[in-house]
């Protein structure tokens, strides 16, 4: 069995920065990542793509190449295409790579599993042609595939980023249907101080908006009652604005109203999570080094609470310093001295967040959808179904599994968990913390008998 | 077939032959399979076991499991697979969908 000082799960900004820092301090590091190449979702496939489409995607994307370069350190083994499906105590990690199961042991574990799109359940959101805005970005970044006739729906900076990139690529979106309202912007006044500290992001945002409106992309802000029409595929988006009904025909719909931490692996280890009212999601309880309530398990990046790519990078470095300190490769004084700069940069990165959270809140009608709207995409459980379970005495997400299989399909609750909690909170009057979240158990991803039978215990070297 | 696609492909690399439900398709070698199928004009990847509803790629990052397809008898996430020569792809529950 291969044993390493540190196993990092996820090769996005947090995981790459942590691996590089830990290796520099003398730790042996194995990075397990699902994707065929390093970068995470934000810097997806950056080494191959930056020379092809770096101009279109921008400097914030090509910055990722500085992080992938850090993985070249001799003490780092980067196993790509590795799907982690179980993490057991102190710490044995089981994963599949190239169709074979494998296991490795680690003294310490860093979860850098990033974010998921906040689920945006609307009528018609399961139709082919409806995707997350993140999916639209991935199609563009990794594959150079662009939607010709797309409508962007929701709120938040990512929506403007993808629109601006589509404009640069010569296929602007047909329209932007935005859910934030004037009162949301008015409510941001108390966060202006932080926003000004993060003024570079605001300037970027304004530039993006200008590039979108310059080519005449219509922006419909304050939209409500949004629905997607179609039978076998998305054909149009309908919505209301200022009391008037609108319908925009399209082939592709990109949904986005924020991202939330991907807590699946952390929850499988029973790490404590609490509700964050500002970000409207559960985040793991961590100390200032990213240490969880489970000894030896660290979490950095968006999986620890949404901060964005640069914040993730600094948090990864900070976690690696503490890991090296615990492994006695660094004195306490050295740790603190080295942590000072990334801590200052992290604070700077996070300054703009309260403003963004207030200016671009989630779409209220997707947090508490109409009864007929599907919440659990896998098992096709509607909001009305969840409410009827609550009426029968169901008070928590785990009980909804017994009532109607919500969260028991292949995605294991990734795209319904927060929705189910929100509907139960609304129906029972309990707090989100009292209501809780699905209990996540391995396997985190489906694993075949063939993968188990072919288990390669000499990995990861043989799997590269 | 490509002209009917709602997607535009920027890259123009070497292509390989695969089959989808027995029908020949030419896809970019090494491309993300879900992206390549979308660009080839394939919108419906499967029908759901619950209600026979059509589904296609949703998250493109291995989380939602909506792009499930069948390769060599195993159900896989199309967005987590790279295109290789001779892939035999089937759409799950296709027969029920046609019935």
Automatic annotation (TrEMBL), chain A:
FAD/NAD(P)-binding domain location: 5-312
Gene3D superfamilies for the chain: BFD-like [2Fe-2S]-binding domain, FAD/NAD(P)-binding domain
Single GO molecular function: oxidoreductase activity
Keywords per UniProt: Oxidoreductase
Domain annotation SoxA A3: ranges: 379-454
Keyword Oxidoreductase set for record: yes
Keyword Hydrolase: no
InterPro entries tied to this protein: BFD-like_2Fe2S-bd_dom_sf, FAD/NAD-bd_sf, FAD/NAD-binding_dom, Metab_Enz_Cyan_OpOx_G3PDH, Opine_Oxase_asu/HCN_bsu, SoxA_A3
A Pfam family assignment: Pyr_redox_2
Highest taxon, organism lineage: Bacteria
UniProt-recorded name of the protein: Thioredoxin reductase
Lineage of origin: Bacteria, Pseudomonadati, Pseudomonadota, Alphaproteobacteria, Rhodobacterales
TrEMBL record, chain B:
Species per Swiss-Prot/TrEMBL record: Yoonia sediminilitoris
Keywords tagged on the record: Oxidoreductase
Keyword Acetylation annotated: no
Cited Gene3D superfamilies: 2Fe-2S iron-sulphur cluster binding domain, sarcosine oxidase, alpha subunit, N-terminal domain
Entries under InterPro entries matching the protein: 2Fe-2S-bd_N (IPR042204), 2Fe-2S_ferredoxin-like_sf (IPR036010)
SUPFAM superfamilies tied to this protein: 2Fe-2S ferredoxin-like
GO molecular function: iron-sulfur cluster binding; oxidoreductase activity
Pfam families, alphabetized: Fer2_4
Protein's UniProt name: 2Fe-2S iron-sulfur cluster protein
């Amino acid at each position: 069995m291969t044993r390493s000082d540190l196993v990092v799960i996820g090769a996005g900004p947090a995981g790459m920065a942590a691996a590089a820092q830990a290796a520099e301090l003398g730790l042996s590091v194995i990075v397990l990542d699902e994707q065929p190449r390093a970068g995470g979702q934000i810097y997806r496939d950056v080494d191959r793509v930056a020379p092809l489409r770096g101009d279109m995607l921008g400097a914030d994307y090509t910055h990722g190449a500085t992080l992938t370069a850090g993985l070249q350190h001799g003490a780092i083994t980067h196993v790509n295409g590795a799907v982690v499906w179980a993490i057991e105590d102190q710490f044995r990690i089981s994963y599949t790579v190239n169709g074979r199961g494998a296991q490795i042991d680690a003294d310490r574990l860093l979860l850098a599993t990033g974010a998921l799109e906040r689920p945006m359940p609307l009528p018609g959101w399961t139709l082919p042609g409806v995707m997350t805005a993140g999916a639209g970005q991935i199609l563009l970044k990794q594959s150079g595939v662009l939607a010709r006739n797309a409508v962007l729906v929701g709120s938040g900076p990512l929506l403007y980023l993808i629109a601006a990139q589509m404009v640069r690529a010569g296929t602007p979106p047909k329209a932007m249907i935005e859910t934030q309202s004037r009162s949301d912007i008015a409510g941001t006044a108390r966060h202006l101080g932080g926003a000004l500290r993060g003024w570079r992001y605001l300037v970027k945002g304004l530039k993006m908006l200008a590039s979108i409106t310059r080519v005449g992309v219509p922006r419909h802000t304050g939209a409500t009652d949004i629905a997607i029409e179609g039978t076998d595929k998305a054909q149009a988006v309908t919505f209301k604005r200022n009391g008037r009904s609108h319908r925009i025909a399209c082939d592709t719909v990109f949904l986005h109203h924020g991202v939330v931490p991907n807590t699946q692996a952390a929850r499988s280890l029973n790490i404590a999570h609490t509700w964050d009212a500002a970000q409207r999601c559960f985040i793991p309880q961590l100390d200032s080094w990213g240490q969880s309530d489970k000894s030896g398990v660290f979490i950095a990046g968006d999986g620890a609470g949404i901060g964005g790519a640069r914040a993730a990078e600094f948090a990864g470095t900070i976690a690696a310093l503490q890991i090296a300190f615990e492994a006695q490769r660094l004195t306490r004084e050295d740790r603190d001295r080295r942590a000072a700069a990334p801590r200052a940069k992290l604070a700077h990165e996070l300054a703009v967040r309260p403003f963004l959270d207030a200016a671009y809140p989630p779409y209220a009608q997707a947090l508490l959808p109409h009864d007929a709207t599907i919440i659990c995409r896998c098992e096709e459980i509607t909001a009305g179904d969840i409410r009827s379970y609550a009426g029968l005495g169901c008070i928590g997400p785990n009980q909804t599994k017994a009532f109607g299989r919500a969260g028991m399909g292949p995605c294991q609750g990734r795209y319904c968990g927060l929705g189910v909690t929100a509907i139960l909170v609304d129906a029972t009057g309990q707090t989100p913390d009292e209501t809780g979240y699905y209990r996540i158990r391995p396997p985190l991803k489906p694993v075949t008998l063939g993968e188990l039978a072919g288990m390669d215990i000499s990995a990861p070297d043989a799997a590269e | 077939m490509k002209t009917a696609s709602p997607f535009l492909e920027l890259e123009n690399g070497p292509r390989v032959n695969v089959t989808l439900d027995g029908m020949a398709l030419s896809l970019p070698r090494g491309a993300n399979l879900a992206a390549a199928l979308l660009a080839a004009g394939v919108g419906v990847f499967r029908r759901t076991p619950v209600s026979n509803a059509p589904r296609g790629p949703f998250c493109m990052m291995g989380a939602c499991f909506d792009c499930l397809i069948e390769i060599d008898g195993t159900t896989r996430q199309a967005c987590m697979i790279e295109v290789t020569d001779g892939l035999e792809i089937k759409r799950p529950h296709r027969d029920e969908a046609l019935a």
